[in-house]
Amino acid sequence: MIIRTIDQLIEGRSLISVAPGASLRAACGILNSHNVGALAVLENGALRGILSERDVIRRGLVRPGSLDDL
């Protein structure tokens, strides 16, 4: 079995991120356009959290209201 480091696994990939104030609809657009399942939430270059597809479903789609307001 070959054991690789995280650096080796992500080599050549760019970090796909979103700002904390972005709407859920905008974040979904980024997830879709980059074909990824999660986004780093960055504020002034610092990691504030991670938004996953599961977060979108569990906390966004099941709540009433517009995705533009969440």
Structure notes:
With 70 residues, the chain is of the alpha+beta class. Helices cover 36% and strands 21% of the residues. The protein is built from three helices and three strands; from the N terminus they run H-E-H-E-E-H. A three-stranded mixed sheet has the order 1-2-3. Strand 2 (38-43) and strand 3 form a beta hairpin. The longest helix is centred in the middle third of the chain and has 11 residues, at 24-34. The model has no long low-confidence stretch (mean pLDDT 88).
> Any idea what the radius of gyration is?
14 Å
Shape: elongated
Low-pLDDT residue spans? none
Oligomer state equals single chain
Order of helices and strands: HEHEEH
Mean pLDDT: 88
Give the key terms:
alpha+beta, 21% strand, 70 residues, 3 helices, three-stranded mixed sheet, elongated
How do the helices and strands line up, and which of them pair or pack?
Elements: H1 6-10, E1 17-18, H2 24-34, E2 38-43, E3 46-52, H3 53-61
Parallel strand pairs: 1-2
Antiparallel strand pairs: 2-3
